Amino acid sequence: MSTARTIRIRRLVSTRRRLTNRHALWVIGLLLTTAVGCAPMQSSSPFDGEPLGRPGAMEQLPLITLILWHARDLSLTPAQIETLNRLRGDHQRQTEAHTAELQRTEQELQQLFGKEPLDLAQVDARMRKIDALRTDLRMSRIRTIEQGKATLTPEQWQELQPVLRGGL
Q: Within the chain, what is the greatest distance between any pair of CA atoms?
């Protein structure tokens, strides 16, 4: 066999191997991408376990909003609707204020990390304030939910249960 022909055959075999390897890597990459894309998404909500209210909802709905959506089904009185709307509005305003304060405090903490030497007392104070604000936000939500539930009669609460479990 001639040297030129041997070289051509070796190049051809080498090219084929590279193409086969590239093809295999492409297929593996596609499979991994598909597997990761199809993996179930894990919720990171601190309120896991609470009902969604509507099947297929992308995010969890606030209980008061859900109750108001079903006001006619639950035969809510105008006074109940007014109370629920007031609770929701008050909670939203309070949440916005707490969230703004939380963001300011987190920015202050980040600025402290940029200073040398690091003032541990200041860092500790900001971290404690952040924890307190987060706790206040959660407790405010829980209090509002409980006040909203207390607005309903026991019969209305019972009528709402199938909705909370995902039915309409």
A: 99
